[in-house]
Design a protein that fits this description.
Shape: elongated
Mean pLDDT: 83
Structural class: mainly alpha
Strand content: under 5%
Distance between the termini: 57 Å
Low-confidence stretches: 1-20
Radius of gyration: 33 Å
Strand order of the largest sheet: 1-2
């Protein structure tokens, strides 16, 4: 069904073209070097015809050399246990990852998937820390409030629940952070730092969700990555933005509307001249067979900054006007600038204006800037009712308050490590060895201070308490890496297992959301890597937990 859909889509996209070599040549004549829809059709054909899969996929690579999916499919088709098969698989995999640099939508969706995975998993990790620690630490806070009534003011932090989940999490982390060890309080400061940069985080998240639906961005990308011209001609017609105008002029030139393209390039040059603009303007003159005018404009481009395309194009014009000495001079110059670029230019050479000279296009890095500038108001996705600008102010206030509280509050309640009894410096003036309650101390250290019946009863209580704790730790370690460490009060070490595991887990989810616009292909290599890394984190966390339990760690 998907194969039929893709073929139907391709037929709608290029209804007048036939498949095979005619399609390839006609696409190049129209300035299209990445026929992705047809490449996807060939990938589908390769899957249904395993015996000829490699040949079909290599053909797909010809039609779409910047499409990572083709390289990944070739990597799978080339795999075998022989040394040649392994090296070919690795080589195609590396080439596929490298192709991300030349394919904006693939790099955009990958970045979106990774970014959202990091953000969502970070927030969720903090929530899990609260859920694990709060039942234990809230009783310590209750004990402190009972001893010193003024400590009830700490609960005022929870009033931030009215402003949304983000600040509520911050307030709760500060509350339980008072009972963390010094090194573990870094986790609280990490979350407060996240709140401080939250406007930037939400602005970036908004960009990933909104920009992917932008028709103008799609049109700009399609033209500059040589995928399509007609969409840009319909969408960018009345644009005023420089990037959109540049792309529209490029589409006009490829469509044979040279006079209109020249007018736009001249307008852009008046505003901000560049070698790329002069190069593309000169290409229009070449298409109109005004070679002398084209030579002058190419020279203006080279005088500003020598770029391989302009130097190569000038060599072509000199050859076309039968000055082969000048042509050889400039082709050598172009090769010195970038030999690989000249080789790419020669592979598509033809008499058609879109192949005889090379157009400059907007680099992918500019698409990112373009996307960011056109991001609308930040979306908080329901995580904050208060204005987004309020969150950094609250974050700074939280940091100052937490630093003051941790410094001023000297005496905090704690649990007996043997039986779990809650103590503090007020109700128990003398802190015994290893933070034990008096009864456990007398039962385990001062053996002569309790009779045998009381001592046995206390030892059974300690044994039951520690057995329950051990069982809880074992269960948590198998449910979620890092949760066992968090439960035992080693918050920072637990977080360092928990967060990476959640990141890899959410990559599998976000990869199903951030998919390419015209395909059913996602970043399979990223999914496989995430599953492997999840397994590594899970087993390492469990091994460490089991070893420390064997040593009597609670």
């Amino acid at each position: 069904m998907r194969k039929i859909f893709l073929i139907f889509f391709l037929c709608l996209l290029v209804p007048t073209l036939s498949f095979g070599e005619d399609l390839y040549e006609e696409q190049l004549d129209r300035g299209i070097r990445n026929s992705e829809p047809y490449a996807y059709v060939l990938i589908k054909q390769a899957k249904t015809n395993p015996s000829e899969a490699k040949e079909i996929l290599k053909k797909a690579l010809t039609y779409a050399p910047d499409l990572p999916a083709v390289y990944f499919e070739l990597s799978k088709a080339s795999f075998s246990l022989s040394s040649k098969g392994i090296f070919e698989t690795i080589d195609y995999m590396i080439k596929g990852i490298t192709a991300y640099e030349r394919n904006f939508w693939w790099s955009f969706t990958t970045a979106g998937s990774l970014f959202m995975s990091f953000v969502i998993s970070f927030i969720l990790a903090m929530i899990i820390i609260i859920l694990i620690r709060l039942p234990q630490d809230i009783s310590l806070l209750a004990h402190d409030i009972k001893e010193i009534r003024t400590k009830a003011g700490i609960l005022l932090l929870l009033i931030f629940a009215l402003t949304g989940p983000l600040l509520l999490i911050g307030g709760m982390l500060i509350t339980i952070g008072l009972y963390m060890k010094k090194v573990d309080r870094v986790v609280v400061y990490l979350y407060l730092l996240f709140l401080l940069i939250s406007p930037l985080v939400f602005n970036t998240a908004t960009m990933f969700f909104q920009v992917s639906a932008s028709n103008k961005l799609k049109a700009v990308v399609h033209v500059n990555e040589s995928k399509d011209n007609q969409y840009a001609l319909s969408i960018l017609r009345d644009s005023n933005d420089d990037i959109e105008l540049f792309s529209y002029a490029l589409a006009l030139k490829r469509d044979g509307r040279y006079t209109e393209a020249i007018d736009i390039y001249n307008r852009l040059i008046e505003k901000r001249p560049s070698p790329q603009l002069y190069n593309n303007l000169a290409n229009c003159y070449v298409a109109m067979n005004e070679m002398e005018k084209a030579k002058k404009v190419y020279m203006k481009s080279i005088e500003m900054k020598p770029i391989p395309s302009a130097v190569y194009n000038l060599s072509q014009v000199w050859r076309e006007t039968f000055d082969f000495e000048k042509g050889d001079e400039y082709i050598s110059y172009a090769q010195r600038l970038d030999r690989n670029a000249v080789s790419r230019f020669r592979t598509i050479f033809g008499r058609n204006p879109n192949r005889f000279v090379i157009d400059e296009v907007i680099p992918s890095s500019t698409f990112w800037k373009y996307s960011h500038e056109r991001t609308a108001d930040n979306l908080t996705m329901g995580l904050s009712i208060a204005p987004i600008s309020f969150i950094p102010v609250a974050s700074i206030s939280f940091m100052i308050l937490f630093a003051i509280l941790t410094k001023r509050i000297k005496h905090r309640a704690f649990r007996c490590k043997k039986c779990g009894t809650i103590l503090c410096n007020i109700c128990e003036k003398r802190i015994l060895w290893d933070q034990m309650c008096p009864i456990c101390y007398r039962s385990l250290i001062k053996l002569d201070e309790l009779d045998a019946r009381e001592r046995v009863s206390r030892l059974l209580t300690v044994y039951d308490y520690q057995t329950k704790n051990r069982n809880t730790i074992k269960a948590l370690s198998f449910i979620l890496p890092g949760s066992a460490q968090i439960y035992t009060g080693n918050i920072m070490s637990g977080f360092l297992f928990l967060w990476p595991f959640l990141v890899f887990l959410f990559i599998l989810v976000t990869n199903s959301i951030f998919i390419m616009e015209t395909s059913y292909f996602s970043h399979l290599w990223l999914n496989v890597s995430s599953v492997l890394l999840m397994a590594i984190v899970f087993f390492v966390s469990n091994i460490i937990t089991q070893r420390r339990l064997a040593k009597g760690w609670l």
